[in-house]
C-alpha cells in the first residue's frame, strides 16, 4: 500500500486552529516501515509548539503528534526488526546522527551530531524534508526509531507512553526510584499521572504534590500513598526534608526553592516540565544540604523500549479520553484549562 499523501490535522500558522489537510509521506526505503496510525496522544508540547510559545516559529504548517501507536502496514526490503501486522509506536523523534557519543550509547534524545535529534514533527530530516507528526493516518519511519508495543497494553492507552510515559520513566529509573525511596510527583496531569503509576510499580513510596486536593482520590487510585495541596503553606512545613527524589511535571512558574526544601540531604529535584520563562533558583537552596536540581528529556530508543516492556509487565497504560479528530481544537482548550483526566487520544480513523 503506497502512500504519497495522507490526510492529517495541522496548524497552518502559530496560534491558528488546527484544520484537516494532506501531507506528503515518503515511499518506504530499504530500512523503513510504513505504520498505519491507530491512535495519537495530545501532549502539552503540541500546544506549546503550534502556539509558538517556545520561541521558534517552526516549519508551518505543523502536524503535531509524537505519541503514536499503530500497526505496521508495509516494510522495506532490508527491514529485520518488524513485520506487517506488528504493534508499534513512535515517540518524540524519528532520527538522529547515529554516530555521536550519545547516539552510540542509546541516548539519541541527546544527540550532539550535526543532524541532531530529528523531531517527529516540525523538524527537518536527513532528506531535507519537513517531518509531520502523528495527527495523521500513516507515517514512515526507519525501523530503528520505532518501538514494539507489548500485546498486554491496549493501543489507545499505549500511545501516551511514547512521550508522557518515557518522560517520567527515564528520571525515575536514572535516579533509582524503588523500595525504600520516597518520591514526590509535582502535578497530576498527563505526565504526572504516569509518574505516579510508574514510581509505584517500581516500589517507591509516592506522594502527589498538586495545587489543590481536587484530584486526591485519583492520585490514591493511581498508586500514591500521600496527596498534598501545594496551595497550603503548611504542606511545605510538614514535608520539609522528606523526599529522595522530586519530579516536577508542571510547565508553569513554581517556587523552586520551596520544593528544594522538601528534599532530604543529597536529594534531587528533576525538572521535566518546560515552562516558557526561566525559573529562578537560590544557590543556598542547593549547597546547604548537597541537593541537586536536574533536568531530563524523554529517553533514548533502548530506554523507551525498556519502559514499554516495564509497563507491559505491570499492566500500565495511560488514563485516556478518546476523541475524534474534529474535537482536537476543543481538546486543546480543555488541556489549557486542565480539564482532562489524564490524556486526550485521537482516534485517527476519524481524520
UniProtKB/TrEMBL annotation:
CDD domains, per database record: CAD1
A Pfam family the protein falls into: ADH_N
SUPFAM superfamilies attached to this UniProt entry: GroES-like (SSF50129), NAD(P)-binding Rossmann-fold domains (SSF51735)
E.C. designation(s): 1.1.1.2
Catalytic activity: a primary alcohol + NADP(+) = an aldehyde + NADPH + H(+)
Cofactor(s) annotated in UniProt: Zn(2+)
Keyword Disulfide bond: no
Annotated keywords: Metal-binding, Oxidoreductase, Zinc
GO molecular function: alcohol dehydrogenase (NADP+) activity; zinc ion binding
Domain Enoyl reductase (ER): 16-346
Signal sequence extent: none
Top-tier EC class: oxidoreductase
Family per similarity comment: Belongs to the zinc-containing alcohol dehydrogenase family.
Name this protein carries in UniProt: alcohol dehydrogenase (NADP(+))
Organism per entry: Streptomyces eurocidicus
Organismal lineage: Bacteria, Bacillati, Actinomycetota, Actinomycetes, Kitasatosporales
Amino acid at each position: 500500500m503506497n502512500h504519497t499523501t495522507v490526510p492529517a490535522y495541522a496548524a497552518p500558522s502559530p496560534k491558528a486552529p488546527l484544520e484537516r489537510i494532506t501531507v506528503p509521506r515518503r515511499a518506504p526505503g530499504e530500512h523503513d516501515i510504513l505504520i498505519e496510525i491507530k491512535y495519537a496522544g495530545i501532549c502539552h508540547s503540541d500546544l506549546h509548539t503550534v502556539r509558538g510559545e517556545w520561541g521558534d516559529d517552526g516549519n508551518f504548517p505543523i502536524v503535531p503528534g509524537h505519541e503514536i501507536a499503530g500497526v505496521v502496514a508495509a516494510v522495506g526490503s532490508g527491514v529485520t526488526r518488524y513485520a506487517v501486522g506488528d504493534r508499534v509506536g513512535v515517540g518524540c523523534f524519528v532520527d538522529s546522527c547515529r554516530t555521536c557519543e550519545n547516539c552510540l550509547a542509546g541516548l539519541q534524545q541527546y544527540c550532539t551530531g550535526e543532524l541532531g535529534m530529528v523531531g517527529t514533527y516540525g523538524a527537518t530530516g536527513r532528506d531535507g524534508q519537513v517531518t509531520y507528526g502523528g495527527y495523521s493516518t500513516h507515517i514512515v519511519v526507519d525501523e530503528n526509531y520505532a518501538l514494539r508495543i507489548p500485546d498486554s497494553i491496549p493501543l489507545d492507552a499505549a500511545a501516551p507512553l511514547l512521550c508522557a510515559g518515557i518522560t517520567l520513566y527515564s528520571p525515575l529509573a536514572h535516579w533509582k526510584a524503588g523500595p525504600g525511596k520516597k518520591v514526590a510527583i509535582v502535578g497530576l496531569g498527563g505526565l504526572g499521572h504516569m509518574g505516579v503509576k510508574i514510581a509505584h510499580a517500581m516500589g517507591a513510596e509516592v506522594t502527589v504534590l498538586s495545587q489543590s486536593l481536587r484530584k486526591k482520590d485519583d492520585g490514591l487510585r493511581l498508586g500514591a500513598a500521600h496527596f498534598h495541596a501545594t496551595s497550603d503553606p503548611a504542606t511545605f512545613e510538614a514535608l520539609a526534608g522528606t523526599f529522595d527524589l522530586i519530579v516536577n511535571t508542571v510547565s508553569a512558574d513554581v517556587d523552586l526553592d520551596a520544593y528544594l526544601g522538601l528534599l532530604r540531604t543529597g536529594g534531587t529535584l528533576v525538572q521535566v516540565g518546560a515552562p516558557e520563562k526561566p525559573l529562578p533558583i537560590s544557590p543556598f537552596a542547593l549547597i546547604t544540604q548537597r541537593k541537586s536540581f536536574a533536568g531530563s528529556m524523554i529517553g533514548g530508543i533502548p530506554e523507551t523500549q525498556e519502559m514499554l516492556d516495564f509497563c507491559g509487565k505491570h499492566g500500565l497504560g495511560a488514563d485516556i479520553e478518546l476523541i475524534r479528530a474534529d474535537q482536537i481544537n476543543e481538546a486543546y482548550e480543555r488541556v489549557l484549562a486542565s480539564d482532562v483526566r489524564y490524556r486526550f487520544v485521537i482516534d485517527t480513523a476519524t481524520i
